[in-house]
Design brief:
The protein has 400 residues and is α/β, with parallel strands linked by helices. The protein folds into 3 domains: 158 residues, FAD/NAD(P)-binding domain (3-Layer(bba) Sandwich), CATH 3.50.50.60; 123 residues, Guanine Nucleotide Dissociation Inhibitor, domain 2, CATH 3.30.519.10; 86 residues, Guanine Nucleotide Dissociation Inhibitor, domain 1 (Orthogonal Bundle), CATH 1.10.405.10. It is built from 11 helices and 16 strands. Strands 1, 2, 7, 8, 9, 10 and 16 form a 7-stranded mixed beta sheet that branches. Strands 12-13-14-11-15 form a 5-stranded antiparallel beta sheet. α1 links the parallel β1 and β2. α1 crosses α10. About 1% of the residues have low confidence. It is found in: Cytoplasm; Golgi apparatus, trans-Golgi network; Membrane. One of its GO terms (molecular function) is GTPase activator activity.
Length: 400
């Protein structure tokens, strides 16, 4: 391990694994370590089910009715991936007219603007132009455009329209949902990017205790593990490795629920995402529900996993998620956790230590992708070019 690397990565959460893969593809010499013996970090998939009971200190063993323990792969932090980056028929003519406008919108073609200036007209004004009601506005902004607050309403509409367009195009790609979810749980994703990194020369070490991050003259120069020092020019890590360099900005409550039935009023769907907009429940934050099932090889036959999450706003967080839990009744077993939202205290450009954010309450990857792109830009000084990444991947795998 006494070598010099361009980048050392600590932690195997999805953010760290994606960045490790990107840096390796870009020709960087990468060493990737984790103190844990498994991939995924705080976003790991837990199997068998008995281990989930132990992790949450639930007394006893899972009942026989839950099937074989090894049939379960339970994500601690589930997130859907947008299929391209509607949901039944919409009855309101005005909303359909709005969606047609979005589908035809092209920010490079003024002929599609219909009197709207995408760089000046606010989204609030666009909703007014199409005479959309408050419930439809809440639904559009939070479930389609995936905003977490209503701040976007008074900002130029271009980004929001493009977000809704992405949702529609993602839906059109597969027909029933705009989202994807990997079989056997999200734990497969970090391993996939780890393999990508390895193909390009990256070195992985699991179950490796980290004794010290070595900083000299305010800049990282290496990492010490088991008495050996690996030198580096840049370091990527999750907040758990640098607790003195992050700050708490809130908390998230998550409740993993095991069900023996699909969620009511979802046409017996074997997976779904429900977003309860903040305004609908007199809150500042949306409430998210992610439901998956045996169809994804994450649960025993006939069983469903629903995970409820939201940003904590009061001293009684369990009461805050009641509107979502009521949608899931009856619930066979619950596993409740409350975790801190941690963010880096600085950008890392001086120390060259680039720290990821902890995962928020959302059940989609939009904010995680934003964090990855942000760290990449801070490390390299340039925007992440996805097309270039695809080209390099195709050099190895061929076109798909």
């Amino acid at each position: 391990m006494n070598e010099e690397y361009d980048v050392i990565v600590l932690g195997t959460g999805l953010t760290e694994c994606i960045l490790s893969g990107i840096m390796s593809v870009n020709g960087k010499k990468v060493l990737h370590m984790d103190r844990n013996p498994y991939y995924g970090g705080e976003s790991a998939s837990i199997t068998p089910l008995e281990d989930l009971y132990k992790r949450f200190k639930i007394p006893g063993s899972p009942p026989e009715s839950m099937g074989r323990g090894r049939d379960w792969n339970v994500d601690l932090i589930p997130k859907f991936l947008m299929a391209n980056g509607l949901m039944g028929l919409f009855e309101k003519r005005r909303f359909r007219k709005f969606l047609v406008y979005v589908a035809n919108f092209d920010e490079k073609d003024p002929r599609t603007f219909e009197g709207i200036d995408p760089m000046k007209t606010t989204m609030r004004e666009v909703y007014k132009k199409f005479d959309l009601g408050q419930d439809v506005i809440d639904f559009t902004g939070h479930a389609l455009a995936l905003y977490r607050t209503d701040d976007y309403l008074d900002q130029p509409c271009c980004e929001t329209i493009n977000r809704i367009k992405l949702y529609s195009e993602s839906l059109a790609r597969y027909g029933k949902s705009p989202y994807l979810y990997p079989l056997y749980g999200l734990g497969e994703l970090p391993q996939g990017f780890a393999r990508l990194s390895a193909i390009y020369g990256g070195t992985y070490m699991l179950n490796k205790p980290i004794e010290e991050i070595i900083v000299q003259n305010g800049k990282v120069i290496g990492v010490k593990s088991e008495g050996e020092i690996a030198r580096c020019k840049q370091l990527i890590c999750d907040p758990s490795y640098v607790k003195d360099q992050v700050e708490k900005v809130g908390q998230v409550i998550r409740v993993i629920c095991i069900l023996s039935h699909p969620i009511k009023n979802t046409n017996d769907a074997n997976s779904c995402q429900i977003i309860i907009p903040q305004n609908q429940v007199n809150r500042k934050s949306d409430i998210y529900v992610c439901m998956i099932s045996s169809a994804h090889n994450v649960a025993a036959q006939g069983k469903y996993i629903a995970i409820v999450s939201t940003t904590v706003e009061t001293k009684e967080p369990e009461k805050e998620i009641r509107p979502a839990l009521e949608l899931l009744e009856p619930i066979e077993q619950k596993f409740i956790s409350i975790s801190d939202l941690l963010v880096p205290k600085d950008l890392g450009t001086e120390s060259q230590i680039f720290i990821s954010r902890t995962y928020d309450a959302t059940t989609h990857f939009e904010t995680t992708c934003d964090d990855i792109k942000n760290i990449y830009k801070r490390m390299t000084g340039s925007e992440f070019d996805f097309e270039e990444m695809k080209r390099k991947k195709n050099d190895i795998y061929g076109e798909d």
